[in-house]
């Protein structure tokens, strides 16, 4: 054997290239001999059938002298023969089939079982005729030596029992069953008898079952073969439903208790599953005294001695816990919850590094069993939420939910993705607590998990953003930024995979996003992505899903500018695109627009661009357009769209006159006839178009509502901008006025000392006079309005010769200016009169009091003036 040599780089030079060609030529020598003919002339002669034979004669001939494959073909065609000629088929073909089945192979037997069942389901003959002709053949083949064939005929018989009358069942099935259920019969016969008795329990009254069937049931429950005991144990559920609660308690329950202690694990497993399924038929005493001890025993033995029941126990644990919920003590409730938690993490402790030695001893079967257990725990998770109460979810089950969503095995995460919607519904107001797990599953590395989650994605997202009465708006708003990157990541992963059906499904479900997130978020994160998929993806179903979702986004977009931009891109990049494939997708998009938007919207934006495609150079585009023209015409309303109707008729005339492709011309002629038969709706409502017009009117109303909402938002933003500008202007004005007042105070302070002769004592005296005069002026006003911001600059200087008079005039101006600026409900007469009885005087002093006040100021200033003159003379 030659060693394998790996070349880092192949040499394609001329010398080496000839060497490769020689090697390829050597390979052509090794060829398999090919048979020139599949059948010899003798075989062809034997398989040839006269073409003039009828279907019945041909079937009889092939069953009599044909090969097995021909006979199998006749048996498979039996339902067709029964539909065409039932009498002749029953008289001539069915007896031949009965003869052939005695020596037929497995394939023909399986085909016959399916054909007999099809004849029953299609009701080609009456049930009486069917039982007379077909039932005996079915019963004869029940005990076939091949187990697969026997099971196929048994399934057919069980379906036939549903339709047979009681008397026929009693004579043809029940009476022979007594002998076939005996211990002396074969194992296969006894197993078939168990399944038939389970089916018969629903066909007869309780007293007949008690007298004729229950003795056989007890006998088979104590059969020597464990397969028979297990099979009969599983049929006890159907028998209990047929005999009622009382007989179940006295007859079935003792048998189940005994079978639960059987030496065979498969029998114990069957007994446990039957007990769980019959919980509703047991009263509280039976549950607490009989069922609960058995269940506890199963749970204790599952980890120690009987691991075979572990998978079944994990599968039925949710139903078991909720069925026994009323009889649990708090301790038992906690015990079963801990048992579920232990099963949910079974097999993960070793992966975390706790038992490295045991990891080496684990077999592959054990690992598969542990994966099945955790998968069943994921399946039962919604039932366990009900068991612990959704209010206690975060405390009791959130850690298990986290582990199952992050399980290393795909089947476990897949099951959690399927049950995620049920969990979200149960949590209601607490649904925001599992938001991180939703993001995790959306970003899962397995597309199977994503595909399972996408099935109920719209409902889940709606619950996430709007779920629960008590969920605050803050939690909803915080959940959105995490969801949007997860959704975009999920779509990109589906797009890069080969599973286009998952991608298509995802795009279809993303049409729910306008109800979940804002219009701007959809526009910037999803809408352009949909357009890119339409332009670049190569899978037609994916492109159509993206086109429809894009139209939904456009339908709910709340900004007219963005809508116009998208419409323009659709027309330019699709309708006027260079690739004919894009132009075909434009027509698909127009179909979705006609479905989602009003007629007026389509006529306004897309009617003329669609008609332009009548001149398309590619015949397939023109052909697709012709198929679409009846829908296009249905969007018109007369007389509003009369000019568009003329354009449509003109384009059709051009197609009829100028079309050269014969296939397109044929479709055009057919379309013209259909358009002629169409009735165009008018602007007013008509009875025959009432529902469609009403729906279109509702769409148009919603479109106008979006425009009005956009206008209101613009006005609101403008008003907010104006208020902001007004506030800025007021602030600037106050700032300038405060600067003016400071300049006024400084000018007064500087002008008063200019009266003195320049000595320091004189300056200080003048300053004290100025401070007193300012204090008088401020005391004349209310403290709230005592500012002097509105004083003009022309009053900021005082002449030396008239100091007191200027101060008096300045104070009078302050009083009048401030009072004129105040918008109070006090009449002007209250400021002119000298009365003091009105309420305005409480805030502002009267004119007389102001004059008295300013006269006292004048006297003081005069006195100060005389003292100043004496000082100056000295």
From TrEMBL:
Residues 857-874 have a biased composition (Polar residues). Gene3D superfamilies: Leucine-rich Repeat Variant. Residues 837-856 have a biased composition (Low complexity). Putative regulatory subunit of serine/threonine-protein phosphatase 4. It comes from Calidris pygmaea. GO terms for cellular component: cytosol; protein serine/threonine phosphatase complex. PROSITE patterns: HEAT_REPEAT. Residues 729-738 have a biased composition (Basic and acidic residues). GO terms for molecular function: protein phosphatase regulator activity. Serine/threonine-protein phosphatase 4 (PP4) occurs in different assemblies of the catalytic and one or more regulatory subunits. Component of the PP4 complex PPP4C-PPP4R4. SUPFAM superfamilies: ARM repeat (SSF48371). Residues 713-738, 835-874 are annotated as: Disordered. It is found in: Cytoplasm. HEAT repeats lie at residues 213-250, 252-290. This is Serine/threonine-protein phosphatase 4 regulatory subunit 4. Keywords: Coiled coil, Cytoplasm, Phosphoprotein, Repeat.
């Amino acid at each position: 054997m030659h060693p394998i040599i790996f070349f880092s780089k192949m040499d394609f030079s001329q010398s080496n290239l000839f060497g490769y060609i020689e090697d390829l030529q050597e390979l052509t020598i090794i060829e398999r001999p090919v048979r020139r003919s599949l059948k010899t002339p003798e075989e062809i002669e034997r398989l040839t059938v006269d073409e003039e034979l009828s279907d019945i004669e041909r079937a009889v001939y092939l069953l009599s002298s044909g090969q097995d494959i021909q006979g199998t073909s006749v048996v498979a065609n039996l339902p067709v023969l029964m539909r065409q000629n039932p009498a002749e088929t029953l008289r001539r073909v069915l007896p031949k089939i009965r003869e052939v089945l005695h020596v037929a192979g497995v394939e023909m037997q399986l085909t016959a079982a399916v054909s007999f069942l099809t004849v029953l389901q299609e009701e080609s003959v009456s049930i009486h005729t069917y039982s007379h002709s077909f039932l005996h053949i079915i019963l004869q083949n029940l005990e076939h030596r091949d187990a697969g064939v026997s099971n196929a005929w048994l399934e057919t018989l069980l379906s036939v029992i549903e339709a047979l009358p009681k008397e026929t069942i009693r004579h043809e099935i029940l009476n022979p069953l007594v002998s076939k259920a005996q211990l002396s019969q074969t194992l296969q016969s006894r197993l078939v008898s168990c399944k038939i008795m389970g089916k018969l329990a629903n066909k007869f009254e309780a007293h007949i079952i008690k007298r004729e069937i229950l003795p056989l049931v007890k006998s088979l429950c104590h059969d020597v073969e464990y397969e028979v005991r297990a099979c009969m144990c599983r049929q006890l559920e159907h028998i209990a439903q047929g005999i009622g609660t009382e007989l179940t308690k006295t007859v079935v329950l003792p048998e189940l208790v005994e079978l639960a202690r059987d030496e065979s694990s498969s029998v114990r497993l069957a007994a446990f599953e039957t007990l769980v399924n019959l919980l509703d038929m047991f009263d509280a005493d039976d549950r607490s005294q009989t069922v609960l001890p058995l269940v506890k025993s199963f749970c204790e033995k599952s980890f120690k001695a009987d691991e075979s029941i572990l998978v079944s126990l994990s599968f039925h644990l949710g139903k078991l816990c909720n069925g026994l919920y009323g009889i649990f003590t708090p301790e038992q409730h906690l015990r079963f919850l801990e048992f579920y938690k232990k099963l949910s993490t079974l097999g993960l402790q070793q992966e975390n590094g706790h038992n490295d030695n045991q990891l080496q001893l684990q077999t592959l079967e054990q690992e598969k069993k542990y994966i099945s257990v955790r998968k069943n725990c994921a399946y039962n998770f919604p039932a366990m939420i009900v068991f612990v109460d959704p209010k206690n979810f975060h405390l009791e089950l959130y850690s298990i939910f986290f582990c199952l969503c992050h399980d290393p095995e795909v089947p476990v995460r897949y099951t959690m993705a399927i049950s995620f919607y049920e969990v979200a519904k149960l949590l209601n107001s607490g649904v925001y607590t599992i938001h991180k797990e939703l993001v995790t599953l959306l970003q899962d590395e397995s597309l199977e998990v994503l595909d399972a989650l996408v099935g109920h994605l719209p409902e889940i997202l709606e619950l996430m953003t709007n779920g629960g009465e008590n969920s605050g708006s803050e939690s909803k708003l915080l959940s959105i930024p995490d969801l949007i990157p997860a959704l975009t990541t999920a779509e990109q992963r589906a797009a890069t995979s080969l599973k286009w059906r998952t991608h298509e499904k995802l795009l279809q479900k993303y049409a729910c996003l306008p109800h979940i997130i804002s219009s701007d978020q959809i526009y910037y994160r999803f809408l352009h992505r949909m357009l890119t998929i339409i332009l670049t993806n190569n899978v037609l179903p994916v492109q159509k899903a993206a086109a429809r979702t894009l139209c939904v986004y456009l339908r709910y977009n709340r900004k007219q500018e963005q809508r116009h931009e998208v419409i323009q891109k659709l027309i330019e990049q699709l309708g006027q695109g260079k690739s004919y494939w894009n132009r075909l997708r434009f027509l698909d998009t127009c179909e979705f627009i006609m479905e989602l938007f009003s007629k007026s919207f389509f006529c306004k934006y897309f009617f003329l661009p669609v008609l332009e495609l009548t001149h398309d150079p590619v015949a397939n585009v023109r052909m697709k357009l012709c198929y679409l023209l009846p829908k296009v015409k249905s969007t018109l309303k007369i007389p509003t769209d009369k000019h568009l109707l003329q354009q449509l008729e003109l384009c059709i005339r051009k197609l009829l006159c100028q079309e050269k492709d014969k296939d397109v011309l044929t479709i055009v002629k057919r379309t013209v006839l259909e358009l002629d038969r169409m009735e165009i709706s008018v602007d007013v409502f008509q009875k025959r178009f009432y529902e469609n017009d009403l729906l279109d009117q509702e769409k148009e109303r919603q479109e106008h509502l979006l425009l009005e909402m956009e206008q209101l938002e613009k006005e609101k933003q403008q008003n907010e901008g104006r208020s902001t500008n007004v506030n800025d202007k007021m602030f600037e004005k106050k700032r300038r006025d405060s600067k003016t007042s400071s300049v006024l105070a400084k000018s007064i302070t500087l002008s008063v000392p200019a009266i003195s002769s320049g000595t320091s004592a004189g300056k200080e005296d003048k300053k004290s006079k100025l401070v007193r005069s300012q204090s008088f002026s401020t005391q004349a006003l209310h403290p709230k309005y005592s500012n002097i911001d509105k004083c003009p600059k022309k009053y900021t200087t005082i002449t030396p010769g008239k100091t007191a008079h200027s101060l008096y005039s300045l104070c009078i101006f302050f009083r009048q200016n401030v009072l004129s600026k105040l918008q109070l409900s006090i009449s002007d007469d209250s400021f002119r009169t000298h009365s003091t009885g009105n309420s305005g005087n409480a805030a502002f002093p009267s004119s007389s009091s102001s004059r008295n006040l300013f006269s006292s100021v004048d006297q003081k200033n005069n006195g100060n003036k005389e003292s100043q003159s004496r000082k100056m003379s000295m």
